[in-house]
Amino acid sequence: MSIMKSLFTRAAVSPSQLTASSAAAPPPVMGPSSSGFIAPAGTQAQGAPLQSRQLQSGAKRTFDLVAALISIMLLSPVLVVIALLVMRDGGPCVFGHTRIGNGGVKFRCLKFRSMVVDADVVLKQLLDTDPQARAEWDRDFKLKNDVRITKVGHFIRRTSLDELPQLWNVVRGEMSLVGPRPVIEKELERYGEGAEYYLKAKPGITGLWQVSGRNDIDYATRVALDVSYVTNWSFGSDILILVRTIGVVLNKHGAY
């Protein structure tokens, strides 16, 4: 918790500390808001007037809400089928993991469960006995050949169907359709100064990391992509990322 407080304090830059005309300084970071993107008063973000930025932020939240609700309605038969398949082993169909959201607020990031019921126990046993798995986990917070994943889990992860429950996170305002990759608190230690940017946006179901290699890119690149997304954000860029995501999902690029 002390890490979170320290990061958020450093991220809460006052307007007087920001100079939009400074070429040497990084682009001004945006303060937390209902949309996730509102620049501090008196500043400009990447040359965009504040009023334009606010309008785009409002459009982002409106689009998120409408698109998520429509998607849930249209995909409801698919959601039911996946839930039934996942529950065949006797476990719950949806898994919620605590992630860090806009402004440092913690929330339960939802996914269809793709792992065995006692996944935490299996992971601990693996990491205690397999040095290579331990090194991979410490480096990426992921395992490419994860023994915890079920047969159904492999399919829904490869097709990104496991992330569909996050549409509810979007409706509740905890996530956006497009944004930085949702991370756990411990991962923010790896973000360094990039954590200040991460805390200023809502995590996304998809984002630059998703369309730039997903799990095939190293961790430092993931952080750089999150920072780039926040500092160069526009509503138009969100639409482009959503379009590119369709191709990435269909090709199953970087998914495992």
Automatic annotation (TrEMBL):
Q: Where are the transmembrane segments?
A: 65-87
Main localisation? membrane
Q: Which residues form the signal peptide?
A: none
Q: Note the InterPro entries from the entry.
A: Bact_transf
Q: Which UniProt keywords apply?
A: Cell membrane, Membrane, Transferase, Transmembrane, Transmembrane helix
The protein's GO terms of the molecular function aspect are:
phosphotransferase activity, for other substituted phosphate groups
- Residue ranges of domain Bacterial sugar transferase in the record: 60-250
Q: Which GO terms describe its cellular component?
A: plasma membrane
- Name where it's found: Cell membrane
Family according to the record: Belongs to the bacterial sugar transferase family.
PANTHER family for this protein:
COLANIC BIOSYNTHESIS UDP-GLUCOSE LIPID CARRIER TRANSFERASE, UNDECAPRENYL-PHOSPHATE GALACTOSE PHOSPHOTRANSFERASE
Query: What protein is this chain from?
Result: Bacterial sugar transferase domain-containing protein
